[in-house]
Amino acid sequence: MTQPAVRAEDLSVGYSGHAVLREVSFSIDPGCTVCVLGPNGGGKTTLFRALTGELDAMTGRVRVAGRPAYVAQTERTRLDFPVNALDVALMGSLAHGRWWLPARRWQREAAVRALERVGLAEQAAVPFGELSGGQRQRALLARALVQDANVLLLDEPLSGVDPASAQLIDAVFGELRAEGKSVLVSSHDVESARDFDLVLCLNERQIAFGPPAATLDRSTLEETYGRELIVLDQAGPTSAITIQHHGHGHHHGAHEI
Amino acid sequence: MSDIELRAMLELVLAGGFCGALGFWVVSERLTYGAESLSHGLLPGLVLAGLAGAPLVLGAAGGALVAAALIALSARDERVGPDAGTAVAVTGLVGLGALLALAPEAPQRLEELLFGDPLGLSDGDLVAAALLVLAGGAMLIALHRPLSARAFDTAGAAALGLRPAPLRLALLTLLATAVAVAVQGLGALLVLAMLVAPPVAVRRHVATPRAAMLAAAAVAALGGVAGIQLSALAGSAAGASVALVLCAAAALGAVLPRRPRAGPRRGAPPGSRSPAPTPPG
Known about the structure:
heterodimer; A: alpha/beta; six-stranded mixed sheet; three-stranded antiparallel sheet; 27% helix; globular; B: mainly alpha; 75% helix
C-alpha cells in the first residue's frame, strides 16, 4: 500500500494557545494535486505553516513525506534584498544541508535548470525586486524545484500573476504530478480548483475534502466563504466569485469563475 | 603621522571593517534598535572593569551579556511592549553606568567610555580586533548563505530547514562580540555608527550580499581612517570625528542615484541578458 504524501489527523493549529484552524483530517497520495480553498483568515497559510513544521499541532497530528518545499506569497519576500533570480533558485540547495559551504557546481547547475524550467533562464541575473510579479513567483517556484521535495506547498501562486506566468506555473504543476510529487496550492479561484485532483475547503475548520465534483457544490462554497461568496448563476452551483479583502480592507478584488 | 594615530587607524580598519560587514546583517535583520540598546546597555560593565583595573574588553563583554539578558527579559512584558521594555532597561543601565563612572574612585573618565578614545588603544586592543576579524570573519563567511535566505524570505527559509533561533543567536553573539571589541575605540554611544552607517551607505548600490559585506567593510575602514585624519587636522575629538564621517557616508549613499545595472554578472548562465525592468503584474 502506498504511504500517503501528506496526512493530517484531527489537526488543530493556531497561535499563542488559540486555535485558528481545527478539525482537519485528510490524506493525500503521492502525485496528487490539491487546491486549498478558503476565505482570507480561513486557515490556508496556517495549515501550510503546520505542514512545514513552523507551527506545532495543538491537537492531533500531521505527517509529511520528507521536508516539504514552501512557496510563500511574493509579498512576504524582501524586494530590496540584493539577490537575483539565480540566487533565489540556488537557495533551494540549502535544504540539502552543508549550508556553511559555498554552493557547489552541481547545485548551481540544478538552479540554472530550474530557472529554465520556469522560463526564467534569460532573467537569471536580474535582481529579484526588478522582476514582474509573475516572474517573482516563478523564481520562488524554481527555488522549490531545486529543493527537490516530494511535497510542494504554494501559497496563492497565481494571485495577481500575468497570464503567461500562470500558464507556465500550471505546466510545471502538471510535470510535478507526472513525477509523483504532491502539490498543494492555496487559492481563491473556485473555478481553477476544478482542474485539481482534490479540493480541501477551509474556514477556521475543515469544511470539505474530496474530488472537485463532490466538494464544489453551492452549500459547501457558501459554508466556506460565507458572505465573501457571490453566486452568479442562480440555476446551478458552477458560477460564483469570491470577494477578497486583502490587508486591512483597502483593496477589493474579485476572482471570476 | 604619529604612532598613536597609526595604531588608531589600524584598530578602526580591523574592528570597523568587521563591524561594517556584520552591520549589513544587523540592518537586514532589523536588529538596529537591538544593537543600539546593547552598545549603550553595556556601560556599567565598562565602568566596573575600569574600577577593577581589568581589561575593558572583558567588562564590555560581561556588560553586553547582562544587558542582552535584561533587554530580553524586559521586552517579554506584553503589557508595555518590547520597545518600551527595552528603552526602560537601557536607560536604567546607562544611568547605573553614569552613576558608577562619576564615583570618586572611578579612574576612567566617563566621556572616554561614552565617546571612545581611539588614540588611547593598547597592543592588546589591536590583538582583540585582529582576532575578531579572523574568527568573526570566518563565521560570517560560513553563515552568509543561510542568513541571505532568511533575510530574503523568513517563511521560505524555515521551510528549507534553516531554524531561525540558532541563526539569530549566532548573529547576536557576533554582534555582542563586535560591540565589546569596538566599543573601546568609539565608546558606548558612537560604536553604533560603525555597525549601521556603512551598510546604509552601500545597501542601495550593491547586487549581492557578499558585495554588500565587502563594500560596507571598506566604507567603515575608510571612514575610520578619514575620521582620524580629520580629527588630526581639525583638532577635534577622534571618536566623534569618525562617527560623523561615517554618518555623512550613510547620508551620501542614501541620496546618491543608483547606478544602472550592467550586463549579466558572474554566475549567470551563458547567454543570459538583462531585460528592461517590467512592471509588477
